[in-house]
Design a protein that fits this description.
The structure is a homodimer. By secondary structure, the first copy, chain A, is of the alpha/beta class. Chain A has two domains: about 300 residues, Alpha/Beta hydrolase fold, catalytic domain (Rossmann fold, 3-Layer(aba) Sandwich), CATH 3.40.50; about 30 residues, no CATH class. In chain A, about 25% of the residues lie in helices and about 20% in strands. Chain A is built from eight helices and twelve strands. The first copy, chain A, has an eight-stranded mixed beta sheet with strand order 1-6-8-7-9-10-11-12, with helices on both faces. In chain A, strands 2-5 form a two-stranded antiparallel sheet. In chain A, β7, α2 and β8 form a beta-alpha-beta unit. The first copy, chain A, is globular. In chain A, about 55% of the residues are buried. The interface between A and B is large, with 74 and 74 residues.
């Protein structure tokens, strides 16, 4: 990774780590012993439209093998292309703006809620750090729901195998169905023994829902922001585009292991001068061919934001001496440390009160 | 409805209502001005197993119409049949046991999180009343995820139309695609203008996943309980069966508009003597043929629990003078009032500290 490295105010690497540790230590303070002071918990769907199916034949359904079949008419009106958002707000947030957490491909907002080893997720970590948190499920995934195909969603979904996740998420180089025979990267921060538990979070995905997904995210920004967006992996293009369209509403983008970017030779990104970006990278990017293709596109985008006079900082964890992190930084053993570093960056950008 | 009516301690109907109002009023107290004192927020998946697909042909995928196709191999290992659970716990709960909220068919845990008119959901209402709350998405729905069919899930899913929801959930007698032409029941408590927003919560369902769904619920009870289960509609059979299997762990079942029950002529329900049941019913059951078939099965089940010497109370809202409620009691305009009545019943059963 050749990104310009994020410069912490104290400039020395060990100082950065010390700061991070201090930040992590401080996270626990406000949740104990009196707990988080939570103002509201709730959720909503946003985006989408009514669609009508007609002319489809009735289907026979059996609820048990021995039950008589029931005729079901699949025709009628449905909602489609909406997304789901859940929020937890606090009585006295320390952050100036709510934090929106947008997940990656083949995953849902659960990404941020839990660690597969049972540890505390980033939703709670950032709540403790004083943020109001909005965790969403993009169109087609999780609680956003999905639609009949090919009549409404125009193509078939596809399902990520455990092997693909193991390799693409850089847990390790060698997959095996038998957990005892899987090979992880040396010093892996991912809780390798909990990998199967993690894969219970996988959700199917479609290749053809980008436009409604962007529309729903844009609508979310209009409803909830000004805000900060923390986005993971495949969500990154949606976040960059949402910020490009509404730079006055998106006060920063934290791109955690982003996997896509705007083409700065085609998109007008002049407004992004006003939107500080942070790019956070784990380890072993050089050991996976896909990431070697992806990383340069992010570098070009970051350079493009900087060419506008904007802020595009990079937090390359291995370069900070933090080794072994996977693509799933929020589930790695040192997730609190990484959250602390991100929170420190947000403070450095004037995003905390 | 001919159920024996739930008897509030003060016995007079107006006293019951006054108590309910008082209970509702008290709900707001602990969330303001210092907020709910929240100890932890997180989620987990439970249940399920690894399955392997093999011998399926590669598929070509295009992420945009002009992009070159990508070959995807659908074979490999996947997790299947898990369920999703999200929890919010408090530093000083007033309830003796956590409250598990189990949704109905074609829906997910969102049922309890929000009202389609933007009002406060039962998740927050019961948090305010002092319960630790676990909201789940059953196998196949929402964040639980779903599996390729017919290879893993053996049948096709089906999708509820808006018309079916309008009628079956007793919003009104007459559906129309045009909101202005829909007819609601007189004095409907459901926020009729927000019905389309509600239908964004609908998720596909399968007819053939009852066994893994029960298994996942049973595993949840083993993990989280002792507890109280508040269950809606199609979830009721799972809750009754979970209580039958673990009557020492399930301290009560609140069945809100239940749509299925155990057959007490076949199942050994002797253990349910120790599990108090409350059945909560809205209005207009007599105006829908499906509910006229369902209601007697619940009556038989309630009688069966009582025949064991157990508690099986019924809270028939119209008989209490509370008219116009739909099947979606937790989304109706008077949802706080109904929550207050349920909370009062839980207190009467010794479930609060």
């Amino acid at each position: 990774m050749k990104f310009s490295q994020y410069r912490l105010p104290a400039s020395a690497r060990m100082a950065a780590l010390a700061t991070a540790v201090a930040a992590v230590a401080s996270l626990g303070g406000c949740a104990s012993p009196s707990g988080l002071a939570v103002k509201d918990v709730g959720s909503f769907h946003i985006g989408g439209k009514q669609v009508t199916l007609s002319g489809l034949p009735e289907k026979e359904l059996r609820f048990t093998p021995t039950a008589p079949p029931i005729k079901v008419n699949p025709n009628g009106e449905f909602e489609a292309e909406q997304m789901y958002v859940q929020y937890i707000t606090q009585t006295a947030p320390k952050a100036k703006y709510p934090l929106l957490m947008w997940h990656g491909g083949g995953l849902a907002g659960v990404t941020f809620e839990t660690k597969p080893d049972g540890g505390e997720g980033w939703q709670m970590a950032f709540l403790k750090a004083g943020h109001d948190v909005y965790v969403s499920d993009a169109v087609e995934r999780g609680r956003a729901s999905w639609s009949r195909y090919p009549e409404i969603f125009t193509t078939e979904p596809f399902f990520r195998t455990k092997k693909e996740g193991w390799e693409l998420f850089r847990i390790g180089p060698t997959w095996d169905a038998d957990p005892a025979r899987r090979v992880a990267h040396p010093g892996a921060q991912f809780p390798v023994g909990a990998y199967d538990q993690f894969t219970k979070q996988f959700v199917p995905r479609w290749a053809t829902n980008n436009a409604p997904t962007q529309a729903a995210y844009d609508a979310l920004v209009q409803k909830v922001c000004p805000c900060v967006i923390l986005v993971h992996s495949q969500g990154s293009t949606f976040a960059f585009e949402a910020a490009r369209k509404a730079p006055q509403l998106v006060k920063a983008v934290v791109a955690v292991e982003p996997s896509g970017a705007l083409d700065v030779t085609k998109a007008d990104i002049s407004g992004l001068k006003a939107v500080p970006h942070l790019f956070v990278w784990g380890d072993n990017l050089d050991k996976n061919a896909t990431w070697q293709v992806i990383a340069p596109t992010l570098r070009k985008y970051a350079d493009g934001v900087k060419a506008q006079g904007g802020v595009a900082d990079t937090m390359d964890l291995p370069a900070l001496g933090i080794k072994g992190n996977s693509h799933m930084l929020m589930m790695d053993k040192n997730s609190d440390q990484t959250a602390g570093l991100i929170n420190h960056w947000m403070a450095s950008q004037g995003l905390m009160k």
